[in-house]
Design brief:
The complex is a heterotrimer of chains A (249), B (223) and C (217). With 249 residues, chain A is an alpha/beta fold. Chain A has one domain: Rossmann fold, CATH 3.40.50.300. Chain A is built from nine helices and ten strands. In chain A, strands 6-7-8-3-9-10 form a six-stranded mixed beta sheet, with helices on both faces. Chain A has a four-stranded antiparallel beta sheet with strand order 2-1-4-5, with helices on one face. Chain A starts with 9 loop residues before the first strand and ends with a helix. With 223 residues, chain B is mainly alpha-helical. Helices cover 78% and strands 0% of the residues of chain B. In chain B, helix 5 (89-114) crosses helix 7. Chain B is elongated. By secondary structure, chain C is mainly α. Chain C has one domain (6-211): MetI-like (MetI-like fold, Orthogonal Bundle). In chain C, helix 5 (114-122) packs antiparallel against helix 6 (127-158). Chain C is elongated. Classes of the chains: A alpha/beta (249), B mainly alpha (223), C mainly alpha (217). The A-B interface holds A 56-58, 78, 82-83, 85-86, 88-90, 92, 94, 96-102, 104-105, 109-110, 113-114, 123, 139-140, 142, 155, 158-159, 162 and B 117, 119-120, 122-131, 133, 137-138, 141-142, 145, 218-223.
Chain lengths: 249, 223, 217
């Protein structure tokens, strides 16, 4: 099957979004192919997280067109939004694990309710997912008993439990102690290698360089520059990107 | 002037007292469950519902909180029959207690719900849960844990308030005390013993609720 | 069969409502005075006194107001004193209010940041001076809203005095119902009158809470 016939995983055209009088996204055009790993970088306030949150509908947008797996996003239809969110998973900076449920229950909750997977299958799936992120022995642990890195890995397993085709990662290591970042990035790298479509807002430049197919630099609500990591990091074209990259070192 | 107190005359009537205590406890348990359910539904309407629903709930809450329970009880027991709805003393008591607790717990539960961190709801929505599923499985359990002391206190208040139900012949504890003193004229002793029994019931009910809450409502579930 | 107009009913209820207001104010002010004394006792560094006051509060908060009214009524009779429904109701409601008010006020004193106590101590103020000049003024500010809010509880509490025969709004309602056979209308009016008394107080208490920017835990 020719790749050209498969729809783009995410197709964004002319996306605009304002918070009150502040225009945060000033016309975004972006196409993401299935299996592509995109790293979105830029200063805080450049609209990176907002763009990500538009893709799974956590934020509404004012103008433009957003298509995920060939389906146009329409906020007014809750059924369509839920179908979208089964395709698109999200990992948050502050993990957002459910504190009253064990790790295993966190992973089992959504597939149990939404896909109504029967009990034993649900259990086996959850155990397999936790094993995949290296936390097989933490099935019964509660979030407050886990380190930040472990919690984030549970969050990844939880998102994967819905078998999404696209995963949005919103600064998923920014809230972690430095020594815990590696274990989370290792999991993400495995997902990338397995062919998951990933959109990551990140400050981990080395990781972006290593794992992503394309880097998108956002500046003041627009995509300022984009390209493969090998060229973008080595030969930044625009002064803003050069300034941004030098500010990181 | 010497005061002669005769507690024996009252304590020998312990079966009547026990029956009264049982009734008070029973009324409280049933009203607690239904009242908290009603209050939770009202809290949901107040936070998620449409504006006419919110106004309705707000009116209900203010009406109940600014009128005495005895008047609410009398209205239901004496007033409704003229509309054709005749309820037994027991049913009137339960309904009055449920409506009363419902209004107070609506506010308590609402406070608990509104303290939910936004990230929890975002995570639930991102996992394709419906709003109702998010409310029941993600928002409510931690909310109940947060508000439990306030809710338990309110349930105890309703239990103590149920003493008035004896006035419409519901055979709860205050009715039992009244029955005893009408036979042996030991009014002070009868009511003092009943008061002690109410204190005991408060302690028992509080312990019962503090056991049941974590077990059934806070959602701490493994595996 | 005598026909009673709505105005007949309402005007009689209004007259009775005077007694509701009177009893409420007596209990609230009386309870406030007793409560103030209890508050001082509670804050003195004497363990047995603190426990006694805490016990007092537990008893009044853990038992039905109706029982407290009965005990006052029959207790006073036992002691050979003249029992009118008035005196028993006033006594019971005053003590009831004092227990709740001291608990509210003690909470407000506790809500004053510990640093204030320490600063006052470092300025070599005596315990009494610390209370009077530093702690109580701040506690007062925090206390205004919940104290006003408690007045609503007192007004609602006076309705129980009807059970021991005190003729206030609820008792009048019962008597008028028996005369007119219109319980729905009469108790509806009774509820309305209580609402008209209590709701403005509740609103005022809420606005105070907003103005003074304090959330009581």
């Amino acid at each position: 099957m020719s790749d050209a016939l498969k729809p783009a995983a995410v197709a964004i055209e002319g996306l605009r979004k304002s918070f009150g009088s502040n225009e945060v996204l000033k016309g975004i055009d972006l196409q993401v192919q299935p299996g592509e790993v995109i790293a979105i970088i830029g200063k805080s306030g450049s609209g990176k997280s907002t763009l990500l949150r538009c893709i799974n509908g956590l934020e509404t947008f004012d103008q433009g067109r957003l298509e995920v797996q060939g389906q146009v996003l329409s906020h007014s239809k809750p059924g369509a939004m839920r179908a979208l969110r089964q395709e698109v998973g999200m990992i948050f900076q502050s993990f957002n694990l459910f504190p009253h449920l064990s790790a295993g229950r966190n992973v089992k909750l959504a597939p149990g309710l939404v896909k109504q997977t029967p009990g034993p299958q649900l259990d086996a799936q959850a155990r397999a997912l936790l094993a995949r992120v290296g936390l097989a022995d933490k099935f019964d642990a509660y979030p407050d008993q886990l380190s930040g890195g472990q919690q984030q890995r549970v969050a990844i397993a939880r998102a994967l439990a819905m078998s999404p085709s696209i995963l949005l990662c919103d600064e998923i290591t920014s809230a972690l102690d430095p020594e815990l970042v590696g274990e989370v990035l290792a999991v993400v790298e495995t997902l990338a290698q397995e062919g998951m479509t990933l959109l990551m807002v990140t400050h981990e430049m080395n990781f972006a360089r290593k794992v992503s197919d394309r880097v998108v630099f956002m500046h003041q609500g627009r995509i300022h520059e984009q390209g493969p990591p090998q060229t973008l990091f080595v030969q930044p074209q625009t002064p803003e990107l050069r300034q941004f990259l030098s500010s990181l070192t | 002037m010497a005061v002669e107190l005769d507690f024996a005359a009252v304590l020998t009537q312990w079966p009547i007292l026990l029956k009264g205590m049982g009734w008070t406890l029973g009324l409280t348990v049933v009203s607690a469950i239904l009242g908290v359910l009603l209050g939770t539904a009202c809290a949901w309407v107040r936070t998620q519902g449409r504006s006419w629903g919110r106004t309705l709930v707000a009116t209900y809450v203010e009406l109940i909180r600014n009128t005495p329970f005895i008047v609410q009880l009398f209205f239901i027991f004496f007033g409704l029959p003229s509309l054709g709805l005749r309820l037994s003393p027991e049913w009137s008591s339960v309904i009055a207690m449920v409506i009363n607790l419902g209004a107070y717990s609506a506010e308590i539960v609402r406070a608990g719900i509104q303290a939910t961190p936004a990230g929890q709801i975002e995570a639930a929505l991102s996992l394709a849960l419906t709003r109702m599923q998010t409310f029941i499985y993600v928002v409510l359990p931690p909310a109940f844990e947060r508000i439990w002391p306030a809710l338990v206190s309110q349930i105890i208040i309703v239990m103590l308030g149920s003493a008035v139900c004896g006035q419409i012949s519901t055979e709860e504890l205050s009715f039992a005390a009244n029955l005893i003193q009408s036979r042996n004229f030991r009014a002070f002793e009868a009511f003092l013993v009943a008061t002690g029994a109410y204190l005991l019931l408060s302690v028992v009910t509080r312990s019962l609720l503090n056991w049941a809450g974590p077990r059934f409502l806070f959602g701490r579930r493994r595996g | 069969m005598v026909e009673f107009s709505l105005w007949d009913i309402f005007s009689n209820l209004l007259l009775a409502a005077r007694w509701t207001v009177a009893l409420s104010l007596i209990a609230f002010v009386g309870g406030g005075l007793v409560g103030l004394g209890l508050l001082v006792a509670r804050t003195l560094p004497l363990k047995w006194l603190q426990i006694a006051v805490a016990g007092y509060v537990q008893v009044f908060q853990g038992t039905p107001l109706l029982m407290q009214l009965f005990l006052a009524y029959f207790g006073l009779a036992l002691l050979g004193w003249e029992t009118s429904a008035w005196t028993s109701a006033a006594l019971a409601l005053t003590l009831y209010s004092s227990a709740f008010l001291v608990e509210i006020w003690h909470g407000c004193v506790r809500a004053v940041p510990k640093g204030q106590w320490e600063a006052a101590q470092s300025l070599a103020l005596s315990f009494g001076e610390q209370l009077r000049h530093v702690i109580l003024p701040q506690a007062l500010r925090i206390a205004v809203a919940p104290t006003v809010g408690f007045l609503v509880q007192v007004v609602k509490g006076t309705a129980l005095a009807s059970v021991i025969g005190f003729i206030e709004l609820t008792k009048a309602g019962t008597m008028i119902t028996n005369a007119t056979f219109k319980p729905f209308l009469v108790y509806g009016c009774v509820a309305l009158l209580y609402f008209l008394i209590c709701y403005p107080i509740s609103l005022y208490a809420r606005s105070l809470e907003g103005k003074l920017h304090v959330r009581r835990t």
